[in-house]
Structures are given as C-alpha cells and as structure tokens.
Amino acid sequence: MKERDGSGAHKVRQVEAIASGTVIDHIPAAMTLKVVNLLAEVEDQVFVGINLRSSRVGRKGVVKIAGRELPERTVSSLALIAPQATISIIRDYEVIAKYQVPMPDVFADIARCDNPNCVTNHERWPTRMEVVLRDPLTVRCTYCERTFAANELSLI
Amino acid sequence: MTFAGRHVLSISDFARADILHVLASAGRLEREPRPDLLAGRLMATLFFEPSTRTRLSFEAAMHKLGGRVIGFSDVGSTSTKKGESLADTLRMVEQYADVIVIRHPRDGAARLASEVSRVPIINGGDGANQHPTQTFLDLYTIAKLFPRLVDGGEPLTIAFAGDLRYGRTVHSLLVALCHFGVRVLTVAPRGLEMPDTYLNHAFTAGIDVEPVPSLQEAVRRSDVLYMTRLQEERFPDPLEFGHIKASYRINAAMLAGAPAHLRILHPLPRVNEIAIDVDRTEHAHYFAQAGNGIVVRQALLGLVLGKM
Ligand SMILES: [Zn+2]
C-alpha cells in the first residue's frame, strides 16, 4: 500500500508524501495544530493539512512527521483531542503499520483541569483525568472530581 | 472490614458497606464512650482556611478519645505564605502526626495530600468539592432518626431546599443517599437547581428526584427537610435576592400542616432561612445534627487509626 490520503489513489494528494515517518490522519480539523504541539519535536520536519475533506470526520486535519516513527505509547495522549485519528507508520513510502489511537483509562499530566479552583492549577502537581465515557469522550479530574468534555480541555 | 490507614477524602470513595460500618462504629461510641482509645496518638489539624466549627468538632472528637491535637488555622502564621508547596507542608507534618485533618480552599487539595502522606488524611472540606465528615454525620443523623434508612422498609422522603447548585453538602449527601433507596424532593430558585451530574447519578442508582414548586409542598410530603443557605452573591439583582430569600425561609407557622415526624436539618451556620421560632418546635433537629458530628468524627479517627 502506498502512503496516501484516505480519499483514494486517484485523487491528488492533499499533503506532501513523506519517505518515512508517521502520518496522523482523521484529526478533527480544529484540533490539528494541537496535535502538532503535542507530538512534534522542535527539530522535526512536519507537514500539516487543515480543513481537508473527509467522508469520515467531515473536515479533517492531517499531520505528517518525517523521519520519526512514533510508538503507540507516545500517541496515546492523542486520544484526548483526536480519538478518531489513525496512525500510519511509513517506510520508503510504504505504510508498514496502521493503527487507531488507543484509548487509555487515564490521561496523566496531559491536559490542564478546566476548573480554575482545582488544586492542580495552584500547586505544582501533575494532573490526572480518568475516562468516564468514551463517546463523546468525557473525563473526570481525580482531584476536584469535576467532569469535562475532553475537547474542552487545554493541553499542558 | 479494615479501615486502618485509610484516607477519608470523598464520599464517592465509600461503598454502602463502608458507610454502614462507619455509622455502626459511631453508634457504638455513642453508647459506650472510649476515653482512652487514642491515648498517645497525635492529630494534626491543617486549616488553610478558617472553619471554627469543623476544627472544634475534630478537636473535641480527638480529645474525647484521649488523643492529643496540634495544628494551625491561620495561614498567615505558616510558611505557605512564603511559597511552600502543599506537598512539602504534608511531608513535614507526617513526620510527627498519626493522622492529619486538612481544610483547604482548593478543590482536590485533600486528595493531593493523601498522595504525599503515609498517615491517614481526613478531608475537613476542600473548596467546593467535598466535606465527607459532614456527609457521614448527616447520614448518621438521618439513620438515628429513621432507622429504616439502613434497615429497609418504606423509603424515606428527603427534601433538599435552597441553593442546590453550589451547595456541596447536598451534592455529597445525595450521592450517599443513592445507596439507601430514598425518594428525593428538591426546591430551588431558578438557576440554582441540582446540577445534571448529580441528577444523572441518582437516576442511574434508581433514585427518584422530583422538583417541587414550594417549600410548603416539601414540608407536607417529607420525612426530612434539609435546608441550605442562599448566598446573596449568587444573585445579580439584589431585589430578586430579597424576593427569593423570603420564599426560601421557613418559620413555625409554615410547619402547622407538617407531619409530626418531619425533622429539619441544616449544615449550619444558618443565616435567616430558618426562623428562630422553628427552634422550639419538635421539628428542629439541626443542633442535634451538629452534635452528632463529634461521635461520627470519633468513629472515623478510631477507624483510620486501626483502633476500632
Ligand atoms: Zn481538577
């Protein structure tokens, strides 16, 4: 299988192909830059497409990180902002592995708690959000016990 | 069931059997006081915001079990003002205290403390979040008045009145009551109704929550009327506040048609939502309720210190 966008081989590629690395596809359009912030290192060569058309998620984003294969563990934090996203690992323009973002039970120190009076916003202490509902993704702060829609939270 | 070393942070951490165990232990201590149970033990009270009534209740509980008490209730006198983290304060205090009671303005502070401390933490109120010893004493009070709360039988009808949106006591009590098959009535001003989170929790537990239009109706239909304060800062319009305050105030005349067994509870301090003339009626039970706090806190101290 050639590295390509989900829209099919006949269409014009919407984002530059990469020879090797990781492609994160089917990101909700508004979350695309958050995904870049979350996963890309300063030195990474990154290609970004925003507001691309997708039959699965409406308007989507695609992020391609060249030269680096992100292990499943690294991308698990993606589940908070882009639970529908798919990850493809590319070697020599071929997709050698493709997987869905795994959904963890807990997001440890990934998102800030949205409750301004939460102790985690006043002490230097890692945040902890427990998944209480998968669809729509809803999490509960271990500390202040408030629940939040995952897409409302800002990342650390 | 072992409670030794356990933290008391949130009523949500306690299953029905745990709650029953705490209530039974409190009942035992009330019948048979144990003035030496905690001899040689030291309780530290860390009150990062003042709450005289909660602190006195914990201190009285510890003294009545023969234990000793240290602590502070004035943040100005501690190093927190100098920027010491909550975790560091805990790491210091746990060196010499056997149990720590913490009261803190931030939501979740007690849980954070429990992740640092090797000795049991008892939450004496963390911001708008939890105040579990209040919930235990509320349950103890209701179960003492109406043993069928725990023994089974015709479900009790419990009415909550006042600010049900921001009142953490009513949220925690509702969550706890979900273990006991009660009927719940609510009376709240528009905008201060019980939040959906708690209504959903009750619904999932099979608990019926019925909003009723007036305090009078709640009085007529309840076994327990749980009153809470209305706070002026929740109302943008002072005129509106004045008007609403009047309709959430209970007085002796309104209790004329109440069932004889109706009991009125309130977490205290009251402002004017319960008129003074109610105090002399057989329905008033809020001072006895506060008194139950001592024996319930004794039980929790005895349990987490492994002595009961
Ligand atoms: Zn929080």
Helices and strands of chain A, in order, run as: EHEEHEEEEEE
Kindly state the mean pLDDT of chain A as a whole number? 88
CATH C-level class of the largest domain in chain A: Alpha Beta
Radius of gyration of chain A: 16 Å
pLDDT averaged residue by residue of chain B: 94
Overall structural class of chain B, as computed from helix and strand content, comes to alpha/beta
Main beta sheet of chain B: strand number and arrangement? Answer: 5 strands, parallel
Number of domains of chain B: 2
Structural class of chain A: mainly beta
Instruction: Name the CATH class of the largest domain in chain B.
Output: Alpha Beta
Beta-strand percentage range of chain A? 35-45%
- As a percent range, the share of helical residues of chain B equals 25-40%
Total number of strands of chain B = 9
> What is the straight-line distance between the termini of chain A?
36 Å
Greatest contact between two chains = A-B, 16 and 19 residues
Q: SSE string of chain B, helix = H, strand = E? A: HEHEHEHEHHEHEHEHEHEH
Tell me the domain tally of chain A.
Answer: 2
CATH architecture of the largest domain in chain A: 2-Layer Sandwich
Total of DSSP H or I helical runs spanning 4+ residues of chain A = 2
Which hetero ligands occur in this complex?
A: zinc ion
Structural features, described:
The complex is a heterodimer of chains A (156) and B (308). Chain A is 8% helix and 37% strand. Chain A has helices at 32-39, 72-75; strands spanning 21-28, 45-54, 58-66, 86-91, 94-100, 106-108, 128-134, 137-141, 147-149. Chain A is elongated, with a radius of gyration of 16 Å. The model of chain A is unreliable at 4-10 (pLDDT under 50). Chain B has 308 residues and is α/β, with parallel strands linked by helices. Chain B has eleven helices and nine strands. Chain B has helices spanning 16-31, 52-64, 86-93, 109-116, 132-145, 148-151, 168-177, 196-204, 215-221, 238-247, 286-304; strands spanning 42-47, 68-72, 99-104, 121-126, 157-161, 183-187, 208-211, 224-227, 263-265. A five-stranded parallel β-sheet of chain B has the order 7-6-5-8-9, with helices on both faces. In chain B, β5 (157-161), α7 (168-177) and β6 (183-187) form a beta-alpha-beta unit. Chain B is globular. Chain B starts with 15 loop residues before the first helix and ends with a helix. Bound molecules: zinc ion. Residues 113, 115, 118, 120, 141, 143-144, 146 of chain A line the site of zinc ion (ZN).
